[in-house]
Amino acid sequence: MADLTTLTPSLIWEMFDQITRVPRPSKHEEQIRAWLRDFATSHAFEWKEDSTGNIVIRKPVTEGYENHPTVVLQSHMDMVCEKNSAVDFDFLTEPIRTRIEEGWVKAEGTTLGADCGIGMAAQLAVLLDDTLRHPAIEALFTVDEETGLTGAFGLADDMLGGKYLINLDSEDEGELFIGCAGGVDTVVRFHYEPKPAPADYIWYRLSIGGLKGGHSGDNIDDGLGNSNKIMARMLKAGGPKLVVAQIDGGNLRNAIPREATALVGVPEESLMVQMSLVGDMCKAELRHTDSDLCYSFEPADAPEKVVDAEVMNKIVLSILGCPNGVLEMSRTMPGLVETSTNLASVKMPAEGEIVVTLSQRSSVESAKWAAAQSVGAVFTLAGGEVKHGEGYPGWEPNPDSALVAATVECYKELFATEPKVRAIHAGLECGLFLEKYPQLDMVSFGPTLRGVHSPDERLEIASVDKFWRLLTALLEKL
After folding, report:
1. Whole-model pTM above 0.90?
2. How many helices (H) and strands (E) does the chain have?
3. Fold for the domain defined by 4-181+395-477
4. Residues 264, 307: contact at Cβ < 8 Å?
5. Cis omega (within 30 of 0) on the bond before 116?
């Protein structure tokens, strides 16, 4: 593991280094919650925890700021847990293996957790730094942002008293975010009767990998490959005699899938040639955006049972026909993705069942549900049982925000250039906060992260200094 404490600003890096040592997968935040409680108690900060597991730690106002409104600093405590298939790592028990490389902090074959660990580190550094001048601070840490916004949905209505909220969950230094997309999940279940594996078939383990993956909001318009789509194309090329015993692709609903595997059987080698031709086509199509795409066929033992061929064909056809990626670009904010969908995972949780999980996003509420209906219609026609989640709201930009104006002014004073002010296609918790605390004036910013939600996640070291300077200067201005 790298010694992150040698980096500057030292306090924020020291906090981030400590956070990377505490396991904190989504829905398994027990250890990081205990760590935060211990932190608050050991430093004599007032703190509170609601029934959902969200924690707020309070720091008193500094002299001269007694009449200024309280500021909420907010991040989420969970992290996306993705790793390369060849990496042996347990996110529930092991610290992240960090490394420093060419101006970036990375992890060894796993996600880094800078989303949103660096935001947490900034909050803790503000709490500890007695040289800062600021209004009263409420540092809010929410649970399970990545897999359902559970903390934001369940935030108690007596946790916050602030007027301003600074969300620290953005990933582009020099950009201020004042709005975000809403989203909804779609889960499809196919049921089948297992059939005896045909005799005299040749069996292979088909593996697809090397894709970059990434955040299904931030990276959806990067032209990246989707391993589930590629798998479906290759299986279709195998023809009607191909059978499938196992299939697995992708993991999290908010990550573009990077890998997929299938145990397939064919009566003759020529069908493998047809599948390979399609694999090569996919590599050629993605050579500019996913040049490391690879696939392989490894000989495998014959299974006892296979998926009913008729059901499997319907699954393959529905995956092929399902929309994926950008559906609509915004006409009000040039360059912003308005509506998208991500075909996130294909799993076999139990014998006789295959589950396909997708997520839809849009900055237009009606378009979000229209996208979900479009996706659901494809799978309904194929015989799947379709269920949509409750969804979460977007965050509508406020052009008259005093907090945004102050942040822009701070940035110009510090760096002699104007930041970009825009909305983001990824989901933030801000929309849900507004439902319970409508008085909040909000902005979101952070240092530069790349490859978020994938093992390529990395945090730009130089941007952390600018992020810290902007945050502390803004607190003083407010």
Report:
1. no
2. 11, 25
3. Aminopeptidase (3.40.630)
4. no
5. yes
Could you give the CA distance from residue 222 to residue 289 in angstroms, rounded to a whole number? 7
- Bridge partners of 106, per DSSP, are 99, 458
Q: Is the peptide bond preceding residue 180 cis, with omega within 30 degrees of 0? A: no
Element (H or E) spanning 296, and its range?
strand 294-299
* Token couple for 384: 């799947």
Q: Which two tokens stand for residue 371?
A: 């996208």
Catalytic residue, candidates 144, 145, 171, 173: 145
Q: Quote helix, strand, coil % in the chain, to nearest 5.
A: 30, 30, 40
* Domain ranges across the chain: 4-181+395-477, 184-388
The angle formed by the CA atoms of residues 131, 136 and 138, to the nearest 5 degrees, is 105
Beta bridge partners of 76: 142
Q: How many CB atoms lie within 10 A of CB 127?
A: 20
Query: Given 78, 171, 173, 457, which residue is catalytic?
Result: 78
**Burial per residue of 80-116, b for 16 or more beta-carbon CB atoms within 10 angstroms, e otherwise:** bbbbbeeeebebeeeebbbeeeeebbbbbbbbbbbbb
Q: Are 238 and 279 in contact (CB under 8 A)?
A: no
Is residue 337 exposed (0-12), middle (13-18) or buried (19+ Cβ within 10 Å)?
A: buried
Tokens of 420: 């970009």
158 catalytically annotated: no
CA distances from 294 to 220, 231, 259 (A): 21, 12, 10
Residue 308 a catalytic site member: no
- State residue 20 phi and psi, 5-degree precision: -65, -15
Per-residue pLDDT of the chain in tens (478 residues, 90 and over written 9):
889 999 999 999 999 999 999 999 999 999 999 999 999 999 999 999 999 999 999 999 999 999 999 999 999 999 999 999 889 999 999 999 999 999 999 999 999 999 999 999 999 999 999 999 999 999 999 999 998 899 999 999 999 999 999 999 999 999 999 999 999 999 999 999 999 999 999 999 999 999 999 999 989 999 999 999 999 999 999 999 999 999 999 998 889 999 999 999 999 989 999 999 999 999 999 999 999 999 999 999 999 999 999 999 999 999 999 999 999 999 878 889 999 999 999 999 999 999 999 999 999 999 999 999 999 999 999 999 999 999 999 998 887 899 999 999 999 999 999 999 998 898 889 999 998 999 999 999 999 999 999 999 999 999 999 999 999 999 999 9
